Amino acid sequence: RRGAQDMDIIISQIHTLSTNNDSDLKKLRDFLRHEQESLKANAHLIDQALQTLEPSQNTLGIAFLLTAQLNAAVFANQRNTFAYVGNYLKLADEQQAKKASVQINHVCKSYAQMAIDEGPQAMLRSLQPLRCAVEKLRPSAETLTPVHAEFLRVCLKAKAYHFAERILDQPIFDISLINNNCTQMTPQSFLSYFYYGALIRIGMKKYAQALQALLVVLTCPASCLSMIQADAFKKYVLVSLKCHGELQQLPVYASHIVMRYAKSPSYVLDIAEAFKQGDLAALQRTVEEKAQQIQADRNVGLVKQVVQSLQRHKLQTLTKTYLTLSLTEIAREIGMEEMRTAEVEELLFDMISAGEIRARIDQSTGNVFFEDDQDEMDVHMVAKMQDKLSQILDLAQRISAFEQEIVSSEAYIRKTAALEGDPRSVPAMGGYDFMDM
C-alpha cells in the first residue's frame, strides 16, 4: 500500500512539473533523482504508472521511470515494454530529453540490447527510434553522444548499413565531456562509434572511409591498449592492403602503446609481408595456417578480399611495365595457372569496369592492350575537387576558431602563466584549475 502511495506522489509531481519552464524541469529532475530508490523498490508498479503519462508531455519523468524498470528488469510483458520504449523515443520532447540525457542514454542502451536479443525484425523496428534519440540528445549535429554507438551497433547486427549512412556522413567535431548532454560519454563509447562505423563502411565497400574511421580509433590517446584498438589494427592492415595495395604506416601521433602493438608478431603482418613480396603462394599458405585465428577475429571475408586484391594489384603493376600481353602471360605473371585464361579475362573486365585500369582485349588474338590514363579531368572530378577544397577551408576555419577560443580562455591563460612562473596567476591554496584535473 505504501508503495502505491509513493508512486502516486511521483506521478503527481511529474504531471505538475512537466512544463516548458526550465526551472520546473530542474525541480522535477532533482525530485526524481531523490526518489530513485523508491522507484527501484516499486519497479513492479511502473508499467501501470506509464499508462497515465504522455511521452511527448512527460518525457523527463518517463525517462526516470523507464530507467528504474529496465535496471530492475521487471516487465508485465517485455514485448509491450519494447514497443512502448520505441514509441517513446520517437515522440519524446527534445527539450525534456536533453534534461534527462543520462537516463535516456541508459534507456537506449537497454532498448538496443533488447532488440538484438529479440532478433532481426526487432532490430529493424528499433532503428528509427534510436536515430530519433540520437537527433534529440545531441546538442548539435556535430556532437557525439553514447546513443550514436548503440544505434550503429544495431545497424551492424541487422546488416542495415544504409540506414546508418546519414549519421556516419555527419562529421563529428565535439565530444566535450564537460557538456551536460554528454555526461556519459566514455572512451569505450567513443571507440565503439568509430569502430562500428568502420565495419559498416567495410560492409558497404567504402574502404577509404573505413580506413579513416579505423585511424580515429588507432590514434585515440591511450595509456593501455583497448581490445577495440587491437581488433581495429587487424582490420586496418587488411583494409589498407585491399585499398592501397600496401600497409599504410600509422601516423606519428598514434600512442606508443598502439605503435608497440602494431610491431608485435601477428598473422596480419605476415599477410602484409607476403602481399608486399607479391608472393601469392606464401599469402595463401599464411591464410591456411592462421585460419583459426582469422575466423575467431571474424576477418575471413576481408582476408579473402585481400588475396583477390593481390592479383588485382599485380595486374595494375603490369600496366606500368607492358603495353601488350597475352591472357596466358598475364595469368603467369599474377600467379594463376596459364590455362585459366577465362578467369583472367573476367578479372580484366571487372577491373576495367571499375576504372582500376585502362585496357582493351582483342578477342581474336587473345592479346590485351594497356592504355595510358587520361590526364584530362572531367566535370565530375572538377566538382569533386572543389567540394573537397571547400571542406578543407571550412575545417581550417574551425581549427582557427577553436585555437582562438582556447588561447583566450581564462583557464588557459592562468595555466600558462603558472607554468611561466607568474605568481599572480597561480590559484590560492585550496583552489583548483579544471585543467589540472
UniProtKB/TrEMBL annotation:
Gene3D superfamilies: 1.25.40.570. Keywords: Cytoplasm, Nucleus, Signalosome. It is found in: Cytoplasm; Nucleus. One of its GO terms (biological process) is ubiquitin-dependent protein catabolic process. PANTHER family: 26S PROTEASOME NON-ATPASE REGULATORY SUBUNIT 3/COP9 SIGNALOSOME COMPLEX SUBUNIT 3, COP9 SIGNALOSOME COMPLEX SUBUNIT 3. One of its GO terms (cellular component) is COP9 signalosome. The keyword Ubl conjugation does not apply. It comes from the Eukaryota. SMART domains: PINT. Residues 206-375 form the PCI domain. This is COP9 signalosome complex subunit 3. Its main location: cytoplasm. Belongs to the CSN3 family. Pfam families: COP9_hel_rpt, PCI. SUPFAM superfamilies: Winged helix' DNA-binding domain. InterPro entries: COP9_N, CSN3, PCI_dom, WH_DNA-bd_sf.
